[in-house]
Specification:
Length: 412
């Protein structure tokens, strides 16, 4: 008899009360971990992200030119939103969803998830600080990118050890494949980021990515990372929350394949082909997810505002607006405002809208079985987001394309 068998016999079986106490304690630990990631993400969204974004926009509209402000500041804002906000949310929800963590297996400690979260947020904060204040940026840039990559690799190790079933042949659901595509997109984003940061610190006179590289990098971060995660979560949650029919998994797989090719073209700088393929992949995903098909049952709006299904569907309208504006930008002679409009139709109209909708639906329950504080505030937030995004996207098109000069004044 080996040591493990002796230990197993010597160990008293747990009573139901002990099992309940152990599981509850583990659940509380996980809720605290999730709250850490979500609060960190929200702070990044609010101050380094939105506050700096608004500041940039006020300057741009005052001077009536996007290139009138520092690219380093613009990139500090983008980095804080994409990796600080959306990245922290995804890592937090990812850790929270690993069953192994919930069962308290010895192979994994919740402590390492806290460490990874701290490393991640420190990395994003250092980047913001270096880009905005330019203090020691040659050192801080590679350090920040290394912290982010290391935190991601810790997360990746934890999730990749996750087996979906305890017995029998493991079968992964389609939404998990889409999330895996997003995870690979995040890895590529972080590798590109590290390579570029090292290059900047050795060769450049400023901490900002050169414009041509930045545009390609953003295609990977937006379409290869964020959009895949939103599609994956949509495939998992929309049938439950919106009552939509089950996703067409094959079509969703084809949409993902088209998008991977599109991101490849984007990375190679072939933007016309990339944007055309993004139209196809987004249309296929909308069809596959059955967002606008007749639902199979009523939406579950208990605990949230009844307008919830309308706003979720509006996010997918914003997705289509974003890809069509992208096609326009790729073919225009004066595209800078169009890229900005397309980018924010995607990041604010699609990604932020979905996070505001689904986040308010699931996060209170995940964070210790709480209820949403106020469904009226939820409605107000979603309405303001919609109006703000509509003014921003339309303003950017009308102002930069010199269609309506007054659009410069409503842009901020
Ligand atoms: C109140 C909300 C926001 C404001 C006022 C804002 C403002 C701006 C401005 C002025 C720019 C530079 C010019 C342009 O591209 O139009 C910019 C760029 C950008 N924004 Fe936003 N933004 C907001 C929300 C978001 C969100 C929610 C995300 C992502 C989730 C995001 C991601 C980005 C990215 C990736 C860039 C490009 C950065 C680069 O050039 O590297 N923004 N934003």
């Amino acid at each position: 008899m080996n040591r493990t068998q002796v230990q197993a016999i010597a160990r008293e079986p747990e009573t139901p009360e002990e099992i309940f106490a152990r599981t509850s304690a583990r659940e509380v630990q996980l809720s605290h971990l999730l709250i850490f990631f979500i609060s960190g993400g929200l702070l990044f969204m609010l101050l380094p992200g939105t506050f700096l974004g608004v500041w940039n926009l006020i300057s741009i509209s005052g001077r009536r030119a996007a290139d009138s402000i520092s690219p380093s500041w613009i990139q500090a804002h983008g980095h804080a939103q994409v990796l600080g906000w959306i990245g922290s949310f995804i890592l937090g929800i990812g850790y929270y969803s690993i069953p192994k963590l919930r069962r308290g297996s010895q192979t994994f400690a919740v402590g390492s998830a806290w460490f990874a979260g701290t490393l991640w947020m420190t990395g994003v904060l250092l980047r913001w600080f270096a880009n905005v204040y330019l203090w020691q940026w040659r050192v801080l840039l590679p350090v920040s990118a290394t912290f982010e990559l290391a935190a991601f690799l810790m997360f990746f190790r934890a999730v990749s050890q996750h087996k979906p079933q305890d017995s029998g042949k493991p079968k992964l659901e389609t939404w998990i494949f889409v999330a895996i595509a997003g995870t690979i997109g995040l890895l590529v984003t972080l590798l590109l980021n590290l390579g570029a940061c090292v290059w900047l610190s050795l060769r450049s006179s400023s901490p900002a990515f050169p414009q041509a590289f930045d545009q390609r990098f953003l295609i990977v971060a937006a379409w290869g990372f964020m959009v895949f995660f939103v599609w994956g979560f949509s495939a998992k949650w929309l049938p439950v929350f919106l009552g939509t029919r089950d996703p067409d998994n094959r079509l969703l797989g084809i949409a993902v394949a088209f998008q991977v090719v599109a991101v490849g073209f984007g990375l190679a700088g072939i933007l016309r082909t990339a944007t055309a393929l993004l139209v196809v992949s987004s249309l296929l995903a909308i069809l596959a997810l059955q967002v606008f098909s007749r639902p199979k049952q009523a939406a579950k709006t208990k605990g949230v505002h009844i307008s919830f299904p309308v706003f979720v569907r509006s996010a997918y309208v914003w997705l289509m607006i974003a890809v069509l504006l992208g096609v326009w930008a790729a073919n225009a002679t004066n595209p800078s405002g169009l890229w900005g409009a397309s980018r924010h139709a995607l990041t604010v109209g699609f990604v932020a809208m979905m996070v505001f909708c689904v986040g308010q639906r699931v996060l209170p329950a995940f964070s210790g079985m709480r209820l949403l504080f106020s469904s009226k505030l939820m409605f107000a937030g979603l309405l303001l987001l919609t109006v703000g995004c509509a003014l921003r996207v339309s303003g950017e098109v009308l102002a930069y394309q010199e269609i309506v000069a007054a659009a410069w004044t409503w842009l901020p």
